[in-house]
Amino acid sequence: MNDANLELAVRSILFASVGTAGQRCTTCRRLYLHEDIYDTFLQRLVAAYEQVKIGDPLEDGTLCGPLHNKAAVQIFRSGIERIKAEGGTIVRGGNVIDRPGNFVEPTIVTIAPSAEILREELFVPILYVVKIQSLEQAIGYNNDVPQGLSSSLFTQNHANVFKWTGYATHHASHD
Predict the structure, then answer these.
(1) From the candidate CATH numbers 3.40.50.1910, 3.40.50.620, 3.40.309.10, 3.40.50.10440, the one assigned to the domain spanning 6-173
(2) 26 φψ region: left (φ > 0), alpha (ψ -120 to 50), beta (else)
(3) DSSP-assigned letter for residue 105
(4) How many Å apart are CA 32 and CA 80, to the nearest integer?
(5) pLDDT in tens, 113-137
(6) How far is CA 153 from CA 2, 33, 139, in A?
(7) Per-residue pLDDT reduced to its tens digit, 23-61
(8) How far apart, in whole angstroms, are the C-alpha atoms of residue 103 and residue 64?
(9) What is the C-alpha to C-alpha distance for residues 165 and 171, in angstroms, rounded to an integer?
(10) Distance of alpha carbon 77 from alpha carbon 80, whole angstroms
(11) Residue 114 needs a FRET pair 20 to 30 A away by CA distance; which of 96, 131, 133, 136 works?
């Protein structure tokens, strides 16, 4: 939200979206940014992504390791093509790294909330960024996917937290 601690949010989202090369079910894949902070936050997140060390995850300082196999690399490639076909913009990354192993660049994409690819799980390090105008809009987009999701809210407003968890609890109890 527009009242979030941006430094904390950038660090948290960076780790959550890149730390397991996107191959964990609780990886951050969708980021809904309030329009008031959208440009500033996106610039900070891109700068953080540019500092990511990609390589052997057993080496100190490496945040992003390889994908688990060649099929995952192909899923990454086809995902990038679909993103472009659905009107998305690659803000950072989007490439397979030419070196031994299954390495890809952690990728940030801006995309419309109506894009079908947002409703799929690719399990690769692609982060979709969507501009929002309100908490209610973010909750609606968050709940508009077929998967059960892990989600987080960055805000300093306790009423927003209660709305977020209340909607999530209400939504889950009716499924």
Answers:
(1) 3.40.309.10
(2) alpha
(3) -
(4) 19
(5) 999 999 998 999 999 999 999 999 9
(6) 11, 10, 10
(7) 888 888 999 999 999 999 999 999 999 999 999 989 999
(8) 9
(9) 10
(10) 5
(11) 96
Q: Where are the beta strands (DSSP E) in the chain?
A: 30-34, 89-92, 107-110, 126-132
Six-digit token string for 175: 């499924």
Of 43-47, 62-66, 138-142, which has the strongest mean pLDDT? 43-47
Domain map of the chain by residue range? 6-173
**Single-letter residue type at 46:** V
Question: What is the strand order of the sheet 107-110 is part of?
Answer: 30-34, 126-132, 107-110, 89-92
Q: Model's pTM, two decimal places?
A: 0.90
Whether the CB-CB separation of 121 and 28 falls below 8 Å is answered with no
Q: Are 107 and 90 in contact (CB under 8 A)?
A: yes
Supply angle C-alpha 127, 46, 119, rounded to 5: 10
Could you give the CA distance from residue 66 to residue 85 in angstroms, rounded to a whole number?
Answer: 26
Residue where the block lists tokens 């968050």? 142
